[in-house]
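Mods, move this if it's the wrong board.
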Amino acid sequence: MKFHAAMLGLAACALTACGGPQASEPDAEAPAAADGPALATAVLTSETAKSTEEEWGTFAEFFAGTTAGTRDLLSGTATIKPGLEIHPPHRHAEEEFLMVLEGQGEWTVGEEVFTANKGDMLYAAPWDVHGVKNTGDTPLTFVFWKWNSNGLPTPPDPLEAAGEE
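Not the wrong board. Structure tokens:
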């Protein structure tokens, strides 16, 4: 189990440019967009990530688009200022992984709240309520991957189907 956690940590670290392997000459532009060709094997660097400053912190989009096995993939990092959250707990059709790289806070999963510490990871299945909030005194940085799978229909919203939303 520790080996898998270490490997996930290394992958997250590489995405945030903390010493992972670099292409000899990375492309100056970000990878293909959702309407373009599938992403080929590539190193996605912090220099090619689309970074924006928001009221709550910094959002860095490393890739948005299609890969060999995914569609609607969004991957990147977010750094949340102390006491803030990107948005309240939410739900969506995509599967999602989030992993805390620095800082501490709280995960919301459904109606439950759990401590979120450096190295912890959350998986959210389609349409499950989830979120992360920085409850610490320092910035909370996390890496995320959110996607729908190629060849599978987008999961229908169970609340919509039940007439609840």
